[in-house]
Amino acid sequence: MDNDLELTVVNCYSCQENRKLPAEAPLHPWEYPSHPWSRIHIDFAGPFMNKLFLIMIDAYSKWIDIHVMNSATSEATIAKLQHTFATHGLCDLIISDNGAAFTSKELADYVKSNRIEHRTSAPWHPASNGCAERAVQSFKEGMKKIKEGTVQEKLNRFLFNYRVTPQTTTGLAPSELLMKRKLKSRLCLVFPNIEKRVKERQQKQKHYHDKKSVNRQINVGQGVFARNFAICSKIKWIPGEVIKQSGPLSFHIKLPDGRVIRRHTDHIRVRNFDCTKNENEEKCDNDSELFEPEITIPISTPETEQPQIEKPSNLTEQIEPRYPKRTRRKPLHFKDFVLN
């Protein structure tokens, strides 16, 4: 009897006309694009706040563009699409519903001329264009939360906050996925700027260091004294001539014997006399063997070649002991023993 009743209802035309909707079909999500601005979803929102809005959302980055519309005609829609494409470039695919502005011949000719594919969702099934529907919902909720300002000011604030906020789906802000960078906001001021902090510390260090420093001007071709770091040498300063500036504070100095050494400006003093043309010539020549022979920078030019200086074989004989030799005596308690 139950089967007969069920069969009767199934075959009843009036019963089928007034039956509820069947169970929803399994979810079939859109394929995630491979790059930004490949597929965009568009839809109209409104009338809302006495205005009509055209909403566009990028399926890859979730970036939203919203335009205030005076009318929902195909000409106005094409004008806003051109405005957006002027910033982000043409997309590959547009998804929309079956509104009159989206199914018009003008829009079909526009997308065809730009080699853009246009697909429409199933009629009366907003979930097929769920990305745009969700963007409309977020837009309306965000606009209602902003109490002050005109409609355009509220729209600007909403778009800015939305674009810098990480999305739950992607985990990143739309600006990072579309522009490959973070948009600066007031929230960024909370986090320290590493580059700025390092520069401030360097300036502070320079300020205190330069209080006791002297700015010495050293030029190429100038006669100078260079600090001598040779072991066991009694000469602290070596006469020479600056032949090259190798850095902001370092110079190459040519010595009287032809060798070239490198010194920091802290190890250079200006020489006020010529070591080769006055009474100091003999003193400088006699002490040249005590200059440091191990720190030599060979520099050759097309005009002259610097000869290679060999280290003297008797260098060890010239080096005097650093400390005087100590006289060693045997301990007294070993006086009765024979020690080797």
TrEMBL record:
It holds the Pfam family rve. It comes from the Eukaryota. GO terms for biological process: DNA integration. One of its GO terms (molecular function) is nucleic acid binding. InterPro entries: Integrase_cat-core (IPR001584), Retrovirus_Pol_polyprotein (IPR050951), RNaseH-like_sf (IPR012337), RNaseH_sf (IPR036397). Residues 32-182 form the Integrase catalytic domain. Residues 299-317 have a biased composition (Polar residues). PANTHER family: PROTEIN CBG26694 (PTHR37984), RIBONUCLEASE H (PTHR37984:SF13). This is Integrase catalytic domain-containing protein. It comes from Mytilus coruscus (Sea mussel).
